């Protein structure tokens, strides 16, 4: 997609509704092999947090496009010895064609993007996980034919995934409800942005009532109760989040054709039960697969890949 060439993806709000739709369509054509793209470029992965899906799906996507990948584990670079982000960014910019970063502070990602001319992709920060949510929207579109007019309910911690879901749903014309315990709401500025994108045409709702939030929803989504970097809070959070577990009882309140999504990794028995993860409404494995297809579309668009 010509309009995305050379751009960054730091927040899902960086993309317009049309750009998101075009990416979803491109990813679906790549998945069905109706479309074949090639770009002989080099992707760097600079991940300061653990990753299975994002690391492997980006790597395989880039290989399938004919490109190459360098895994820039901070521990084996000078990043871990305190080299300033501004300096690292300007140097990596001279070697790489595109850079995906997983880190804690969104601000660090923004500094990278300011100092590097090459496209910079948010591969998860404490604030957002846009690549995940693009794959989630692709999964919803596959299951229902279109996202427009459906309702997604996110139940659990108002974290990076919840923030990106607010933006993503607003961008594709879905109603979005986020049910969290008091004090664990999503980011207020992102909520405001999501409301402004939705423009009153779709619902953007925060609630503390998981049952009311789930009623009639088409997509039930959850994520861990303590994200990477919050491990010390995990035990204290358990009793607070217990009423927000996605289990058969909660799922029975959703639309009968509702699907269940989870970005993974899951803490089975905490935010989601085994029964729901393995149940007939779970689309979790397709969702994980779609990370690879949507990120291939994203890489191809940001790099300007050629059709073959
Ligand atoms: N969902 C997701 O981003 O998984 P990883 O942390 O394994 O990359
Ligand atoms: N909210 C989780 C998502 C992991 C993919 C975390 O940040 O750890």
TrEMBL record:
Q: What's one GO-annotated cellular component?
A: cytoplasm
- State where L-ornithine binds: 160, 223, 227-228
The organism's place on the tree of life at top rank: Bacteria
Alphabetized PROSITE patterns for the sequence: CARBAMOYLTRANSFERASE (PS00097)
Keywords per UniProt? Amino-acid biosynthesis, Arginine biosynthesis, Cytoplasm, Transferase
Q: Which InterPro entries match?
A: Asp/Orn_carbamoyltranf_P-bd (IPR006132), Asp/Orn_carbamoylTrfase (IPR006130), Asp/Orn_carbamoylTrfase_sf (IPR036901), Asp_carbamoyltransf_Asp/Orn-bd (IPR006131), Orn/put_carbamltrans (IPR002292), OTCase_ArgI (IPR024904)
| Assigned EC number | 2.1.3.3
Where does the record say this protein resides? Answer: Cytoplasm
Q: Where are the transmembrane segments?
A: none
Residues annotated as domain Aspartate/ornithine carbamoyltransferase Asp/Orn-binding:
149-301
Pfam family name, one: OTCace
What Gene Ontology molecular function terms does this protein carry? amino acid binding; ornithine carbamoyltransferase activity
Q: Which family does it belong to?
A: Belongs to the aspartate/ornithine carbamoyltransferase superfamily. OTCase family.
Q: What is the protein name for this chain?
A: Ornithine carbamoyltransferase
Protein source organism = Tolypothrix bouteillei VB521301
Gene name as annotated: argF
């Amino acid at each position: 997609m010509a309009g995305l060439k050379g751009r960054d993806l730091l927040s899902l709000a960086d993309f317009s509704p049309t750009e998101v739709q075009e990416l979803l369509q491109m990813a679906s054509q790549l998945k069905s092999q109706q479309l074949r793209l090639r770009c002989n470029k080099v992707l760097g992965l600079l991940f300061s947090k653990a990753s299975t899906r994002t690391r492997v799906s980006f790597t395989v996507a880039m290989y399938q496009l004919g490109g190459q990948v360098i895994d820039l584990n901070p521990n084996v670079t000078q990043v871990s010895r305190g080299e300033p982000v501004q300096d690292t960014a300007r140097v990596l910019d001279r070697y790489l064609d595109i850079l995906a970063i997983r880190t804690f502070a969104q601000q660090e990602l923004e500094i990278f993007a300011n100092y590097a001319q090459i496209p910079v992709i948010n591969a998860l920060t404490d604030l957002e996980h846009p690549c995940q949510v693009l794959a989630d929207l692709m999964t919803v579109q596959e299951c229902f034919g279109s996202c427009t007019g459906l309702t997604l309910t996110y139940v659990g911690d108002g974290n990076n995934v919840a923030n990106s879901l607010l933006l993503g749903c607003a961008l594709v014309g879905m109603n979005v409800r986020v049910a969290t315990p008091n004090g664990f709401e999503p980011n207020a500025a992102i909520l405001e942005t999501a409301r402004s994108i939705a423009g009153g045409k779709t619902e953007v709702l925060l609630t503390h009532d998981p049952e009311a939030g789930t009623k009639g929803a088409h997509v039930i989504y959850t994520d861990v109760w303590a994200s990477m970097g919050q491990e010390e809070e995990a035990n204290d959070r358990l009793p607070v989040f217990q009423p927000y577990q996605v289990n058969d009882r909660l799922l029975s309140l959703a639309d009968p054709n509702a699907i269940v999504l989870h970005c993974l990794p899951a803490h089975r028995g905490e935010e989601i039960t085994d029964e729901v993860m393995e149940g007939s409404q779970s689309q979790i494995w397709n969702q994980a697969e779609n990370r690879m297809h949507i990120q291939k579309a994203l890489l191809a668009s940001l790099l300007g890949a050629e059709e073959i």
